[in-house]
Amino acid sequence: MLVLLPPSETKRDGGTSTPVDLSRLSFSSATAARAALLADVVALAADETAMMRALKLGPRQSAEVARNAALLTSPVMPAIDRYTGVLYDALDAGSLGDASRAFAHESVAVHSALFGLVAALDPIPAYRLSHDSRVPGERLRARWREVIARQLEARDGLIVDLRSEGYVELGPAPRRPGSVFVRVVAEDGTGRRRALNHFNKRAKGLFTRAFLEQRPQLHTVNELIGWAESAGFRLDARESHDEAGGAARPQELELVA
Prior knowledge:
Helix content is 37%, strand content 16%.
């Protein structure tokens, strides 16, 4: 089973002094795309005004340009520790035990706008790049969509997609039984549901932490739903339909927060 997490705009500083080594990153079929994008981002960072425009940064965020300029020499740390924010605060990867962190490396991938899919413990530097950035003048969708779609298509077993829709556009998961997109919703007293924002991220972080702490071996969507219930989460399947209007297997689950 592979859990796909979105990245965060905010990153933790620091790490080990060894600079990023693309040969050490998982999902190695993306190495060429990573190298090309990394070089373009560093080159663009030489022009502060151009980079701030490309990243849609405000005047108080100019330090992000310096981060990108130093990408080839700055320290690295495991991806799951690098990201901060609501989701990653709830996940609290630093407090997980060794067995859970090892399990995370095998079963969790973060979708980085700069590096593509990275496994939980892959060492990466702090950076600033978003799914809607243009580097240089080109949407990242053109860089990543086919690369990531092929990687996910080749992945066996369950794929549980917790990414935001912006990152789904950069590399869609396959539409097949056992590949599901999870949407976080709230339910009112009448049974009506609405999508969440802040609590969406927190629910995804808590869900992922429970998965890593318990380390279940799940092979089907029904097993996923059953495990979630035992762990205190409610996952409901939403029926999807094919283009002809016929019933298809569920491709979306709702996590009721």
